[in-house]
C-alpha cells in the first residue's frame, strides 16, 4: 500500500454524500458480475458477456483503489481512510484474488496493449466470484470499522447489492435455460425457468444452454 501525503480532511456531510457514489460502485459491480456470466451462444452473447466483464473489472479496480491504494494518489481520490475508520479494524489486506486486478484491468481493458496477444485462454479468464468475494470482505470490514452515520442508508444499499449478487448466482445454478426461439429468418431469445411442469415457449426451440455463472476469457 502506498504512503499518502497530507490529505484534505473530509466533513461528515462530504462522507455521507460520497457514500452514495460508493454504493453505486458496489451496485454496478454486482450487476456487471452477473452480466459477465451471460452464456455465449452467438456473437451477441459474447459481446454481452464481454460488456459485463469489462464493467465488472473497472468497478472492481475503482473499489480496490478506495480500500488498498497503490501508486500515485491524488488528494481528490476517495480513500477508505477519508471516512476515519477505527484503526484497530482498518486497514485490511486484500485477498489474493485481487493481486493482479489492477494490472489486468489496465493491460486487458483500459488500454490496448501488445500483451493481449501473449495471453492464453486460461490467463484471459476472469474469476468473477473470487474477485467479488475478496471485495465483499473488504466492504464488510470497512462498514464495520466506520461510524455508520457517515454512510447512512447507503450502507444498506451496499449490503443489499452483495446479497442480490449471491441470490442471482444461486438462481443461475438451478435449471435456468436460455432458449433461442424463432424461425431461421428471425431469431429472438427469452430466459425461462424450468419448473416441475416443464418449459413452455411459443415458437420453435432451436437451441438450449444452461446459463453459466463463471466468466470465460475476454475475447
What global shape is seen? globular
Rounded average pLDDT:
82
Helix and strand pattern:
HHHHHHEEE
User: Span from first to last CA?
Assistant: 32 Å
* Low-confidence region ranges: 175-214
Task: Give, in spatial order, the strands making up the sheet with the most strands.
Answer: 2-1-3
Q: Approximately how much helix is present in the residues? A: 40-55%
Number of helices: 6
Strand composition percent: 5-15%
Rounded radius of gyration (Å): 20 Å
Helical/strand content category: mainly alpha
Annotation, overall tally of beta strands: 3
Largest sheet: 3 strands, antiparallel
Itemize the secondary structure elements and their pairings.
Blueprint lengths: L11 H24 L7 H25 L33 H10 L10 H4 L3 H18 L8 H20 L2 E7 L4 E7 L11 E6 L9
Antiparallel strand pairs: 1-2, 1-3
Helix pairs in contact: 1-2, 1-6, 2-3, 2-5, 5-6
Q: Quick gist of this model?
A:
This protein has 219 residues and is mainly alpha-helical.
Provide keyphrases for this structure.
219 residues; 3-stranded antiparallel β-sheet; mainly alpha; 46% helix
What would you say this structure looks like, in words?
- The chain has 219 residues and is mainly alpha-helical.
- It has helices at 12-35, 43-67, 101-110, 121-124, 128-145, 154-173, and strands at residues 176-182, 187-193, 205-210.
- The protein has a three-stranded antiparallel beta sheet.
- A hairpin with a 4-residue loop joins strand 1 and strand 2.
- Helix 1 packs parallel to helix 6 and helix 2 (43-67) packs across helix 3 (101-110).
- The radius of gyration is 20 Å and the shape is globular.
- 27% of the residues are buried.
- Residues 175-214 have low confidence and may be disordered.
Amino acid at each position: 500500500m502506498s504512503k499518502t501525503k497530507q490529505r484534505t480532511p473530509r466533513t461528515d456531510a462530504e462522507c455521507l454524500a460520497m457514500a452514495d457514489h460508493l454504493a453505486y460502485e458496489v451496485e454496478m459491480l454486482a450487476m456487471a458480475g452477473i452480466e459477465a456470466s451471460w452464456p455465449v451462444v452467438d456473437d451477441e452473447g459474447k459481446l454481452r458477456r464481454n460488456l459485463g466483464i469489462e464493467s465488472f473489472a473497472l468497478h472492481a479496480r475503482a473499489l480496490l483503489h478506495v480500500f488498498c491504494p497503490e501508486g500515485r494518489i491524488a488528494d481528490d481520490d476517495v480513500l477508505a481512510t477519508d471516512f476515519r475508520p477505527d484503526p484497530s479494524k482498518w486497514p485490511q489486506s486484500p485477498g489474493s484474488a485481487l493481486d493482479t486486478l489492477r494490472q489486468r484491468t489496465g493491460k486487458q481493458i483500459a488500454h490496448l496493449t501488445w500483451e493481449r496477444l501473449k495471453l492464453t485462454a486460461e490467463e484471459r479468464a476472469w474469476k468473477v466470484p473470487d474477485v467479488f468475494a475478496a471485495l465483499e470482505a473488504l466492504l464488510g470490514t470497512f462498514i464495520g470499522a466506520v461510524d455508520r452515520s457517515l454512510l447512512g442508508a447507503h450502507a444498506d444499499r451496499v449490503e443489499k447489492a452483495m446479497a442480490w449478487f449471491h441470490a442471482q448466482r444461486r438462481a443461475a445454478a438451478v435449471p435456468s435455460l436460455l432458449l433461442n426461439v424463432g424461425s431461421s429468418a428471425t431469431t429472438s431469445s427469452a430466459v425461462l425457468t424450468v419448473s416441475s411442469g416443464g418449459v413452455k415457449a411459443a415458437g420453435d426451440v432451436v437451441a438450449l444452454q444452461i446459463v453459466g455463472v463463471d466468466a470465460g476469457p475476454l475475447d
